[in-house]
Known about the structure:
By secondary structure, the chain is mainly beta.
Amino acid sequence: xxxxxxxxxxxxxxxxxxxxxxxxxxxxxxxxxxxxxxxxxxxxxxxxxxxxxxxxxxxxxxxxxxxxxxxxxxxxxxxxxxxxxxxxxxxxxxxxxxxxxxxxxxxxxxxxxxxxxxxxxxxxxxxxxxxxxxxxxxxxxxxxxxxxxxxxxxxxxxxxxxxxxxxxxxxxxxxxxxxxxxxxxxxxxxxxxxxxxxxxxxxxxxxxxxxxxxxxxxxxxxxxxxxxxxxxxxxxxxxxxxxxxxxxxxxxxxxxxxxxxxxxxxxxxxxxxxxxxxxxxxxxxxxxxxxxxxxxxxxxxxxxxxxxxxx
Length: 311
């Protein structure tokens, strides 16, 4: 695996440490509850810092960047490079989105290290913080085009995966491959175990970001979807549960910042009361728990290809 540092790694040494760091809510969505902000990959694939209070954008990156991990003073993102066999990591300043460094890493020559939606292939990557920087795990699932086969005669989906350690210091940035097979550490399940549940919520409960809040949902009749799910939310340590939105989803990745419930939705489509098709793309949305109204939403990148398949 090859690593290249293209501009000033020294900038990492002089950058001031951040007060807090955002945590991964969903792929391409990092949320900092204490600071009241999110960093997302927008619908075009650019990193964007969003206020949880009103959805206003503080900055947008100058080039495509898929947020992976924030550590004090730097934001790690996957850049966009369409060439096969090589990937690009970006180190951004979380204060303004400017690029501090670029690091190239190798993947197999038939892999495209891009999370942009593509027919018949999907690339994903996860990052976990380490004392030296980060450990990254990548995976591509690819299928041959209709009626085609790979060189070995197989027509089954092909899975390529690997991992490397990213070492960051003031002098150099290195991507070091891991030869032994490794997998990302398993995170907590969305469902709360009986001993983790709150007495004020329903029987089945779901975990909020960093286990700081919990949610239960109950079905309610709905003319459009047949049923929606009425959310009830509680911050751990708070005195009472609060009724939230009624959504078409029993669970979505969510967090609570002050009186704001923020959640990442999948794309949705439906037939409205006039018989017309309606819907929305993948979103990061906010609900005002104090007033019981939707507050804002921003469209985010959907890495799943949903268009027509090639012949």
